[in-house]
Amino acid sequence: MQDSLAKSLRLRTIEQILVKCTVGTDARTERDMNVEMSNHDCSGRRVACGAWKSSRHGCSYSRGVVIRAIAHKIRCHCRSTVLMRNVALVLFCAISSGLAQGPQPAPTPSVVYSAHDPNSIKDYKTNSRVVHEMVNRLVLAATGQTDVAKAWASLVSPSDRIGIKISAAGGELFTTHHDVVNAIVDGLAAAGHPRGSIIVWDRSLGGIKDAGYRPGIDDYQLKAVPPRDGYDPQAILSAPLIGKLVWDDLDYRSDKGKMLMLSDTENTSNVSHFSKIISTEVTKIINVPVMSSSEMNGIAGCLYNVTIPNIDNWRRFAQGSRFGAESLAEIYSNPLIAKKVVLNLMDGLVAQYAGGPQSQPNYAVHHATLYASKDPVALDAVALKRLEQWRAQASLPAIGHAAAYIDFAGALGLGNSASNRIEIKNVGR
Questions:
Q1: When you count CB atoms within 10 A of the terminal residue's CB, does the N or C end of the chain come out lower?
Q2: How far apart are CA 319 and CA 293, in angstroms?
Q3: Same structural domain for residues 72 and 139?
Q4: Same domain, 77 and 182
């Protein structure tokens, strides 16, 4: 998708030069020619071609418009001996301009760092020492530093309020591992951040004790997003998708105590609200999803982990690619998220290729791998490819169509989704 968008931009440039060459060969042509703009750009109105030269309308023109413009010129001058001169000049301009454009430079490749150690997990039990070493190697590689404290200090400043966004939907067996979070907190503490100021959160923490977390004992804050009151009425996200509100959404209106029941349309909305944690309580985010499929969104990876679990009225974005292909990428691009996430660290100690992000052990593998990247799109693309391989081996259908938002995020400039723009570097022992 990123390549096709680039090609479209180059073609558009050639088209504009072609039109300029056409009208520039004869003053009367420039004065008399009328061109119909495409509806999606200029509401179908007709303007003088001279407007193209001055760019007063700020429009983009399709290739069909250029062809009609040339055809009109030929009809206007078919009896003129100047015709052949003009046509030849037009063709010369088009060919020369196309050659001059040439291939555009590709965006800077993204790097996804991988740390694999078979000793990191056995029978769903992690080895704390090994996991800490893996996390440290990844952070050093991702930042280019040689010291763990300096590595974390390069990502966050002393004044930042830091949040670690985990995935806790998988309960005991498939929550972001406690040892991974502890290693991150240890690194942040080494960089000078008080442990008690660090927030570790997800929408719900229902099964977090079973996963080894210790609310009230762990020396960092463990937080869930409270129903309704946990969302910020000032941090609004509007989208053209209508969602049915439920009891934990901020704008849900209860019919309790009323004579008339609210209709379904009265409890629907195209508005979501960001959680207060992400809108006001943290200024920098370490994004730590699990390596998981998603039944509704293809993959519950980096883009998913800080979007869907951090808004209310979210179900409208989790209904498959028909609804979520663009929305998840657009939600992530909001400054409340995109400007706050400084590192993505995917927990692939256990990976699950179907049924996620809830735990489904029949589809889980001990992958014993952690990934890190500053590019959430690239990391999701790498994870999706691996999940698809496991699904193919299990004769399960592909999920890439439901994760189309990964390519769309690449097109938005949030990162690289094309495999030829992603480099995977192993930072093993």
A1: C
A2: 14
A3: no
A4: no
As a whole number of angstroms, the distance between CA 149 and CA 136 comes to 10
pLDDT digits (tens, 9 = 90+) for 195-234: 999 999 999 998 888 999 998 899 999 999 988 788 888 8
Contact 61, 38 (CB under 8 A): yes
Does this model's pTM top 0.90?
no
Judge if 135 and 205 occupy the same domain.
yes
- H or E segment to which residue 272 belongs: strand 268-275
Q: Tell me the per-residue pLDDT of 269-308, one tens digit each, with 9 for 90 and over.
A: 557 789 999 999 999 999 999 999 998 889 999 999 999 8
**In the listed set 101, 121, 149, which residue is the last one of a domain according to the structure?**
101
Question: Count H helices, E strands: the chain?
Answer: 17, 16
Does 126 lie in the same domain as 96?
Answer: no
Q: Which domain holds residue 335?
A: 110-426
Q: How far apart are CA 251 and CA 267, in angstroms?
A: 8
> Same structural domain for residues 88 and 177?
no
Residue 289 corresponds to which amino acid?
Answer: P
Question: DSSP H helical segments within 199-351, as ranges?
Answer: 276, 302-305, 321-324, 327-332, 335-338
pLDDT at 108: 80
Q: What sign does the dihedral 226-309-166-415 (CA atoms) show?
A: negative
